[in-house]
Amino acid sequence: MRLDKFLGTTLGITRREAGKLLRDKMIEVDGEIVRSASFSVGDDNNVEFNGRPLRLQGPRYFMLNKPQGFVCSHVDDFNPTVFVLFDEVSPEKMHVAGRLDSDTTGLTLLTDDGQWSHRITSPRHVCEKVYFVETADPIVAENIAQFEAGVQLNGEKELTRPAKLEIVGEREGVLTITEGKYHQVKRMFAAVGNRVVGLHRERVGAVELDEDLEPGQYRPLTDEEIASFLAK
């Protein structure tokens, strides 16, 4: 790989900015100052910027316990984004695999691997999402059959896919869905005459939210968790 491209990838800078670092003699390869942008580097080379070793990053995979009030986009005029919670190099290069609303909390998966996240978000792949739901009115037993049969969402032509509802309290339930329509859980309960007042995602596929993560905390996914979305 060309050295200027290597610097651009590892430091998140433009090739022009990389060229300036080289001209300013701030880059060493294997202990020697290199000023040529076209210098070729490989896995065996030791590249340093001001004495700081640089390494190409592979794909990154994280789980975040998303707090309330944060959005899953990179830019928002009113709310902070989840990416400000990350103390990682170039967090702007990551994206959320299955966004949550600003007032929804819980398991959020972030990566810079587009093919991997496609396995989570694409309608072609059946990926379960499990939510703990709090409602304004009591959840009635008939909702179980309604959600299993599919409900008609406002503005949608087709019914929702079959969903599993478990009632765990008068106004509390655990809902498992296999699709990710806009505001789907809220709209499903609205379709049966109820209103969601609290929503927390507990699981995506086989990956459960780490109970040791406080709101706003994150950790890398394990190799097993990463591979679980590729095994289908």
Shape-level CATH architecture of the largest domain: 2-Layer Sandwich
Instruction: Give the total of beta strands.
Output: 13
Percentage of β-strand residues: 25-35%
N- and C-termini, Cα separation: 34 Å
The fourth-level CATH homologous superfamily of the largest domain is: Pseudouridine synthase
Low-pLDDT segments, ≥5 res: none
Q: Number of folding domains?
A: 2
CATH topology of the largest domain: Pseudouridine synthase
CATH class designation of the largest domain: Alpha Beta
What gyration radius follows from the Cα positions, in whole Å?
Answer: 23 Å
Summarize model confidence as the mean pLDDT.
92
Shape: elongated
Order of helices and strands: HHEEEEEEEHEHEEHEEEH
User: Strand count, sense and closure of the main sheet?
Assistant: 9 strands, mixed
Helix content: 10-25%
Question: How would you describe this protein?
Answer:
- The protein has 232 residues and is of the alpha+beta class.
- The chain has helices spanning 3-11, 15-23, 114-121, 142-149, 184-191, 223-228, and strands at residues 27-29, 32-33, 47-49, 52-54, 61-66, 95-96, 105-111, 129-135, 164-169, 172-177, 196-204, 207-208, 218-220.
- The chain folds into two domains: 3-54, RNA-binding S4 domain (Structural Genomics Hypothetical 15.5 Kd Protein In mrcA-pckA Intergenic Region, Chain A, Roll); 61-226, Pseudouridine synthase, CATH 3.30.2350.
- The protein contains six helices and 13 strands.
- Strands 5, 6, 7, 8, 9, 10, 11, 12 and 13 form a nine-stranded mixed sheet that branches. Strands 2-1-3-4 form a four-stranded antiparallel sheet, with helices on one face.
- The radius of gyration is 23 Å and the shape is elongated.
- It starts with a helix and ends with a helix.
- GO terms for molecular function: 16S rRNA pseudouridine(516) synthase activity; RNA binding.
- One of its GO terms (cellular component) is cytosol.
- It holds the Pfam family PseudoU_synth_2.
